[in-house]
């Protein structure tokens, strides 16, 4: 109940805030526009203006492993002075709340990409606007950060025709959605890694990640109802191990954070995995929750190599520790059902015992 009440309050704010977050509603006076409102230790960035914000971008390539800063605004960038290779695809990794670009699980994705071949990998750092315990401020700032990122996307498009793929973890998923919409043209692909739920559960589609935000949106759910959304958010949505609590996480200090962080961990492994993560289709997550998705259907692969023509909801199971991928399923469905019966009881216990856990990321 506590969670529900708290979400409701936040959602009320977000709905109001997002609806009125254009600069004209905040005021046209130049001393307010584009500045930061400090409430306690929380930074609410006013307006969508990116100028003088502390949102930064760092480029990594197979030759540039230390990372170098990309400086960009609406009219120019230093991309041509960096190691950015215009003939390669660009992967942009976006962290979430209470985090920064050094987040281990995102750097794990970067490492796997460089093992897989030649790419530009860019990490965005918006940690000054994502600080804990200021969750509502972080949610509010997503739009501005998305606007900053759109300038980078457009700068890349000025010099290169190669694909840009945005990968957002948690709140970063919604930053990706804003960025794609602010850009001159939507990006080809957005991957949502356990897109954040709190603050977005009842938000309109234009304020959160959904399938309209890129040509192809794939989503991995690992902590639905808690730190992640249970809602279908892309063209294809994978619910891993039931999508709520991940195996092996019950033994961890923070079962929710552990489950939430599995989304980028599974994604990283998917890049070079030989067996791969395979899932079977289910008509909806609710069908699954009420136990109707036991039968097998067509299999499809999750993660980096997802089939862009596939649509719908897929269920995936994994091992409880690395290597997580189990390959195509055969006789594993019976085990899956058993595992999930146990898990639903564990989830009920967590909800009863620790309803504030969501906020202790
Ligand atoms: C604020 O600026 C916008 C765009 O520059 C303009 O259309 C609008 O009329 C302005 N509003 C006020 C109250 O000055
Ligand atoms: C963008 O950055 C360049 C180089 O730093 C600067 O000369 C230019 O004035 C900036 N433009 C805007 C609109 O801020
Ligand atoms: C860019 O990448 C292409 C393809 O891997 C490679 O042939 C080329 O040498 C690279 N350019 C630079 C400047 O590194
Ligand atoms: C931006 O960075 C500067 C220098 O590190 C810092 O003084 C300032 O507080 C930061 N702004 C915000 C909104 O955190
Ligand atoms: C599996 O895929 C085939 C070919 O795409 C399709 O005809 C069939 O209906 C699918 N089966 C199920 C159970 O989804």
From TrEMBL:
<feature type="domain" description="Lipase">
    <location>
        <begin position="25"/>
        <end position="308"/>
    </location>
</feature>
<dbReference type="GO" id="GO:0016298">
    <property type="term" value="F:lipase activity"/>
</dbReference>
<dbReference type="InterPro" id="IPR033906">
    <property type="entry name" value="Lipase_N"/>
</dbReference>
<dbReference type="GO" id="GO:0005615">
    <property type="term" value="C:extracellular space"/>
</dbReference>
<dbReference type="Pfam" id="PF00151">
    <property type="entry name" value="Lipase"/>
</dbReference>
<dbReference type="InterPro" id="IPR029058">
    <property type="entry name" value="AB_hydrolase_fold"/>
</dbReference>
<dbReference type="GO" id="GO:0016042">
    <property type="term" value="P:lipid catabolic process"/>
</dbReference>
<protein>
    <recommendedName>
        <fullName>Lipase domain-containing protein</fullName>
    </recommendedName>
</protein>
<keyword id="KW-0732">Signal</keyword>
<comment type="similarity">
    <text>Belongs to the AB hydrolase superfamily. Lipase family.</text>
</comment>
<dbReference type="InterPro" id="IPR000734">
    <property type="entry name" value="TAG_lipase"/>
</dbReference>
<keyword id="KW-0964">Secreted</keyword>
<dbReference type="GO" id="GO:0017171">
    <property type="term" value="F:serine hydrolase activity"/>
</dbReference>
<dbReference type="InterPro" id="IPR013818">
    <property type="entry name" value="Lipase"/>
</dbReference>
<feature type="signal peptide">
    <location>
        <begin position="1"/>
        <end position="19"/>
    </location>
</feature>
